[in-house]
Structures are given as structure tokens and as C-alpha cells.
Amino acid sequence: MIRFSLHCDKEHEFEAWFSSSKDFDGQAERGLVECPICGSRQIGKSLMAPAVTVSRDTSARPLAMDPERREMMRKLREMVQAVRQNSEDVGDRFADEARKIHHGEAEARGIIGKATADDAKSLIEDGIDIAPLPELPDDLS
Fold this sequence. Notes:
Layout: E1 2-8, E2 13-18, H1 21-29, E3 43-45, H2 67-85, E4 88-89, H3 94-102, E5 111-112, H4 117-125
């Protein structure tokens, strides 16, 4: 998976994960990538600096944020927590269960779980709405 820094035509900046650059290009061309702030589907890649790790001890890396980004992270954490609390964790059965729900073969409900990049791509290509649930720094400790 590759994390892209993206921007919309209204200059909102955000990040998203894709299995490849080609995957991003294909989804963007089909209008499947949209700005989480304004909903625009006019999305482009932003310049990115490579991530350089100087230490393997990730617990010691500080993350500097201005108050606006700190509040945005707080809200994102709350959203992730709400999704986890109100969804059934189906683990590695995610792709199969999402298809069953989509085709009316299983009860419609919120689910979370794990899927390979190929499974996620296939679900999206089949018109099944999915989204990655971010792992935030507090989740990794």
C-alpha cells in the first residue's frame, strides 16, 4: 500500500492509501476519489517528501501539530472509535462478508476487518463501498 498526499481543486489537503500509483489513477479517473472536506472529485497528487527514519524506536518520534490539526486528529480518533464500537469485526472474512451484505445474502450492518489490496480493489471495482479505517499513533502503542 502507498500513502499519497492529495489535494482537491479547492486546495484542501488530505492523505489516502492505494495499492499502487496506477490504482490511484484509475480510481481518480472513475471519480471514486473525493475530498473528505468538500466532496470535490477533482483530485491531484501533492508533492511528497520521502519519509526518513533515523531510529527504529518509533515511540520516541514526536509529532508536532498546530491546534487545528490536533483538533482534527481528536475528531478522527473519535470517529474511528465510534466506527469500531458500532461495527462487527469479521476479521479476515471482510471481503466475503462485504459481498454477502451487498448482494442481500447477509444482514445489512457495519463491518470492519482485514482485506488484501487485491480484495479491496475487487470490492471497489464491483461497486461495493468500502473505506480504510486508519490506524492512528495511539492505536499502535
